[in-house]
Design goal:
Number of strands: 18
Structural class: alpha+beta
CATH superfamily of the largest domain: Histidine kinase-like ATPase, C-terminal domain
Largest sheet: 8 strands, mixed
Helix content: 25-40%
Radius of gyration: 32 Å
CATH topology of the largest domain: Heat Shock Protein 90
CATH architecture of the largest domain: 2-Layer Sandwich
Strand order of the largest sheet: 5-4-3-6-2-1-7-8
CATH class of the largest domain: Alpha Beta
Length: 511
């Protein structure tokens, strides 16, 4: 029977060279080969970039290859090895083809060296796949780069970069540092050296900050059952102070590298609960057994149901800290509103701060923000300068609020504003992006206005003389009772939307 030979032709290599890729992605394939337990199993890998010569060199101190030819052959795989993400035998080959016009590879094992050079343009022009040396010889300074010989074992790859390959060094360093965080946690080292003017050598490090509060951190050292098989995970997820939303993700890793970063574990499987607050981050490292569910691209899962099961498992574990992060976001927003309510006296900043947590009542402690509100100074404010009023914003649960959305009450030298953190109105304001600050401003200022209308002493501490005179026009007139509170509400809304600017201190005031 006759047939058509479908063996790929060497021109296929040109198609691989033209694929869309990033330098960091291609380099990571070579670092995978270095760190992979079933391959190099190196403790250290170094990347050197010579911009003047347009040469990239990757050196590791691993156990070396059993022949450099394996790197040049697509599909030459070690198979599955525990903790090693590579199973298809193509990533490294595509990387040296995509990055370089010419590549020289040396590998050193037990004092013996195997090496060869391949010029891709020449091979494609010939219409031939490269035939690579499998001869071994004793390693010496004559045939072996000094850095590799000093390591006594390992692999060195020198890449003459294609003219088209341009990249920003800092971006590549950042991507590699984020990708190999799991390797760093296992004690492996990745170095970058830039040659030439201003060049430097630096050890790349995981840029993810550790959770700041152990009480708001969840440790993982267990797993879940998938298709009747127990699959283990290890990790840590918690609240990280001042972490922006763009970095508030969980890094899912296998072996030495991160596969992807996700926020899928911040919502329930049925979508009834979804948390989009900033400040929650961490990592989950997948243990042996997860390989069959990973995509060949090493940046995704290829099994949707298994991914969903993993995300549900993580969500149920971290649900308490997601709620804590939501409470923190609410308190930050309310604190900012309180700061905007102030009218600064002589240009002085407001005093106060935020504490995360759930308050059990309208007293200083957890779950409140305190801001001191001072009136604007003038020639005279009722004969003297008032000392200011303290505004305490407290969040309570729906049960503790007994059905109320928000209330204000006088307490000591100020006012307690109490907000129901569980009410759908509050949740809806936080769920919008950006947050619906205006809705919360109207809620808080309405309650504060009613309380200030009832309490003349506090009013005098919160408003300048001109405003107080206008408010007094409503006092003692039953037909205008509601108008008095409404007028105060308008003053507060104007204040919170257009805070009074801080005037620079004079030399006399500063002294």
């Amino acid at each position: 029977m006759s047939g058509f030979d479908t063996t790929p032709r060497p021109e296929f290599l040109r198609a691989l060279q033209a694929q869309k890729w990033k330098a960091s992605g291609a380099l990571s394939e070579l670092v995978d080969n270095a760190f992979g337990p079933g391959r190099g199993d190196a403790a250290s890998c170094s990347i050197t970039y010579d911009a003047a010569r347009q040469v990239l060199t990757v050196l590791d101190n691993g156990k070396g290859m059993d022949g450099v030819g394996r790197l040049f052959q697509l599909g030459n795989t070690i198979g599955r090895a525990p903790g090693d993400i590579g199973i298809y035998g193509s990533g490294g080959t595509m990387a040296i083809l995509w990055l370089a016009s010419r590549v020289h590879v040396w590998t050193l094992r037990d004092g013996d060296l195997n090496h060869d050079i391949v010029d891709w343009a020449e091979q494609i022009a010939k219409g031939e796949f490269p035939v690579v040396s499998d001869e071994w010889e004793r390693a010496t300074l004559v045939n072996t780069p000094e850095a590799l010989l000093a390591s006594r074992h390992g692999t060195m790859i020198e890449l003459q970069l294609l003219r088209e390959r341009k990249f920003v060094i800092s971006n590549v360093q950042r991507d590699l540092a984020e990708t190999y965080a799991p390797a760093f946690r296992k004690g492996r080292a990745l170095w970058w050296t830039s040659l030439g003017k201003g060049g430097q050598m630096q050890r790349l490090a995981d840029p993810l900050e550790e959770p700041s509060d152990p009480a708001l951190t969840i440790e993982f050292d267990a797993g879940l059952v998938v298709n009747d098989e127990f699959l283990g995970v290890r990790g840590k997820i918690g609240i990280v102070d001042d972490l922006p939303l763009s970095r508030s993700k969980v890094a899912i890793g296998y072996g030495p590298r991160v596969i992807l970063r996700t926020r899928d574990c911040y919502r329930s499987p049925d979508g009834s609960e979804a948390f989009r607050e900033a400040g929650v981050a961490g990592y989950i490292d997948l243990l042996d057994g997860w390989q069959p569910y990973l995509a060949t691209t090493k940046d995704a899962f290829n099994d949707g149901p298994v991914w969903d099961a993993l995300m549900e498992y993580v969500f149920q574990k971290i649900r308490p800290i997601l709620h804590a992060a939501k409470r923190n976001e609410l308190m930050l927003l309310l604190e900012d509103i309180a700061i905007s309510l102030q009218v600064r006296q002589s240009g002085r900043e407001a005093t106060g701060g935020r504490l995360a947590g759930t308050g059990k009542g309208p007293t200083p402690g957890e779950g409140h923000a305190e801001i001191k509100i001072d009136p604007t100074t003038g020639p005279e404010v009722r004969g003297k300068t008032p000392s200011g009023a303290m505004i305490r914003i407290v969040t309570l649960t729906g049960d503790e609020m007994e059905g109320l959305l928000c209330k204000a009450q006088t307490s000591g030298d100020g006012v307690d504003l109490i907000v129901n953190e569980d009410h759908p109105f509050t949740k809806a304001a936080l769920a919008e992006r950006p947050y619906n600050r205006l809705a919360l401003e109207l809620l808080v200022t309405r309650e504060l206005a009613d309380e200030l209308w009832r309490n003349e002493t506090l009013r005098q501490k919160c408003f300048p003389r001109a405003d107080l005179q206008a408010i007094d026009g409503f006092v003692g007139k039953p037909e205008h009772e509601s108008d008095g509170a409404a007028y105060i509400h308008r003053l507060l809304v104007d204040r919170v939307r257009r805070p009074v600017a801080v005037e620079p201190e004079t030399e006399e005031a500063a002294s």
